[in-house]
Amino acid sequence: MGIKKHKPTTPSLRWTQTSDFAELTADKPYKPLLRPIKKTGGRNAYGRVTVRHIGGGHKQMYRLIDFRRDKLDAQATVLTVEYDPNRSCRIALVEYPDRQKRYVLLPLELKVGDKIISSYQADIEIKPGNCLQLRHIPLGVPIHNIELTGGKGGQIARSAGNSATIVAKEADIAQVRLPSGEVRQIHQGCRATIGQLSNIEHEAITIGKAGRKRWLGIKPTVRGLAMNPIDHPHGGGEGKSGQGNPHPKTPWGKPTKGYKTRKHNRYSDKFIIKRRK
Fold first, then answer.
1. Of all helices (H) and strands (E), which one includes residue 81?
2. CATH number at residue 173
3. Closest CA to 131 of 187, 85, 175, 194
4. Which of 85, 101, 189, 221 has the fewest CB atoms in 10 Å of its CB?
5. CA–CA gap between residue 146 and residue 200 (Å, rounded)
């Protein structure tokens, strides 16, 4: 897992930094766990654009990831480490004793041939890849793929290099510090996987050229300042002018750039002890 710097043989390669993919052990994914992805182009069921700047992109297949880890008390062996175009971390193909194969998120330090297990028991070893209840995980141990509702599957800390830690336990509640810095109460019956997620150099990747953004399905974004007044609140003006508004606005006149959109009195407010940074 490293970063590859390219020789500046073309202008676009001068600043490009990409992953070296050295950790991958398979060229092709496991076909039975693939599903097709239908592109939306940012459009809803009526054909109207509801999310701008989406379209095109390379064709991809979705990998069915086992976020629930619901095959209990059976040791799985890591067969391959693979690339997933739908997420920033790497994934691992594991095989259970009954020959069933599943994809799981790959934590650091997990290698081909290692054994992992998912269980509700307390005597499971604390090592990367094992999935346990929060009540059985010691304080300070890095965890990922954390459930918010028992049995629903992991929803938190699932991207490259991410991990959370348990900072306190009281009664049936664990206080978990999330990657954002937020401290949140989660029931100790919920489960999480041990370890920090792989591909920690992902944030150092430099796209390098506009074409690579198009491969990812991201279309160009035009600044509101460069538009006409009819198209955007920031548009118009003679020559190179400022936005003119006392507060930045979206094309539809809503506040933006730092404006908080979280609902007041949201049901989960009572579970948040400390807000994110």
1. strand 76-82
2. 2.40.50.140
3. 194
4. 221
5. 18
Q: Where are the beta strands (DSSP E) in 151-243?
A: 154-156, 165-170, 173-177, 183-187, 191-194
Domain encompassing residue 33:
3-202
Q: In what order do the strands lie in the sheet with 115-116?
A: 101-105, 91-95, 76-82, 115-116
Among candidates 196, 198, 171, which has minimal Cα distance to 185?
171
Structural domain includes residue 147? yes
pLDDT tens-digit map of 225-250: 999 999 999 999 998 888 888 889 99
Q: Tens of pLDDT along 131-189?
A: 999 999 999 999 999 999 999 999 999 999 999 999 999 999 999 999 999 999 999 99
Domain presence at residue 197: yes
Q: How far apart are CA 111 and CA 129, in angstroms?
A: 10
**Chain centroid to CA 181: how far?**
16
27 in a domain, yes or no? yes
CA distance 194 to 104: 12
Residue 259 contacts by C-beta under 8 Å, 6 or more apart in sequence? 247
User: Which position has the token pair 């599903």?
Assistant: 35
User: Is residue 231 one of the residues assigned to a domain?
Assistant: no
pTM across the whole model = 0.92
